[in-house]
């Protein structure tokens, strides 16, 4: 049985800012942050994106120029209420 889950996270990761070519990129974490996520955020290892989940939200944050980019990631699907 084939899984519909695509193992695309790695290929989706540009990890280079499309605006300034910086590699100083962190993930944007959406939803209510876990304690360890908050700790990572305080260290600048991730950026908290807040609880708002919307279509097409950025998933990466450039720490050099502040640009946010990326795309939809399937791991957010379970956060999204379909109506
Ligand atoms: Zn940048």
Beta-strand content estimate: 15-25%
What do the pLDDT scores average to? Answer: 79
Measured between the Cα atoms of the first and last residue, the distance is: 29 Å
Radius of gyration: 14 Å
The coarse overall form would be flat
Number of helices: 2
Largest sheet: 4 strands, mixed
Helix share bin: 10-25%
Q: Which regions have little confidence, pLDDT < 50, spanning 5+ residues?
A: 76-83
Strands, total number: 4
Order of helices and strands: HEHEEE
Strand order of the largest sheet: 2-1-3-4
Q: Oligomer, anyone? A: single chain
How does the helix and strand content classify structurally? alpha+beta
Bound molecules: zinc ion
What would you say this structure looks like, in words?
The protein is flat, with a radius of gyration of 14 Å. β3 (60-62) and β4 (68-69) form a beta hairpin. It contains 2 helices and 4 strands, in the order αβαβββ. 12% of the residues are buried. The protein has 83 residues and is an alpha+beta fold. The structure holds zinc ion (ZN). Zinc ion (ZN) binds at residues 17, 19-20, 22, 62, 64-65, 67. Zinc ion binds at residues 17, 19-20, 22, 62, 64-65, 67.
């Amino acid at each position: 049985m084939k899984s519909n889950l695509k193992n695309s996270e790695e290929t989706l990761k540009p990890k280079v800012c499309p605006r300034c070519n910086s590699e100083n990129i962190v993930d944007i974490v959406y939803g209510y942050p876990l304690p360890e996520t908050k700790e990572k955020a305080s260290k600048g290892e991730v950026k908290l994106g807040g609880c708002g989940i919307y279509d097409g939200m950025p998933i990466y944050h450039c720490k050099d120029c502040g640009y946010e980019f990326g795309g939809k990631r399937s791991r957010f699907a379970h956060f999204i209420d379909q109506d």
